[in-house]
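Researcher: I'm preparing a figure for a lab meeting and need a structural model of a single chain. I don't have an experimental structure, so a prediction will have to do for now. The sequence is pasted below. Please return the structure as tokens so I can convert it later.
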Amino acid sequence: MSRDLSNPQTYFASLSDFAEREVAAWLSAEELASGSKSWSEPRRRAHLWAKVCAKKLICKQLGVSAADFVISKHTQGPLRGKPIVCSAQPSLRQLQLSIAHSESYVATTICSSAVGIDLETDRPRDELINLAFRPQEKQQLLSLTPEERGPAITQLWCIKEAYSKWLGTGLRTPFYDLVPPKELSMRTGTIQSGTFQGHWAIVWGNQENS
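Model: Understood. Here is the structure written out token by token.
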């Protein structure tokens, strides 16, 4: 690769900035046609805008043009749905990519090693306590006040989903058993913009070392 991407480079963007003209300028016909015909309009826009942001990030970091590569996904096998970069250039094919979106924001990250990102709106999620968390995690969450618990659940969910994307299996993996190993690197944070408040998490590292 033309630059050090051992630490993830990340791009966040608001869906309020979505522009069909920009989508058409950045995405190929193949990328525009990707997705499901059954998706709602908001989901379609989030899907396309996240791809635009991914292409902008890759072009900026690697000094290439949008025409040099296509963002696609695995269509079968255990990695089904995981995004990949298709290109004639080896440096682009080696790139690891992850994409996430919420109701109001999209996020994408690239890295030289396996990487996963998640982004979630900050809202009450008590219904997840018995579905996604181990006994120790559940105990810690229930010890918090209701005001503290919502953000804590959202942040922990982000970590688990980011790790599931690092694995390449996404939501097909039972979150109850998901705990990122210590050998992996992790970064978390929040976004506050206007009325939007959200949490994000990135997990990255070489799979052979985990």
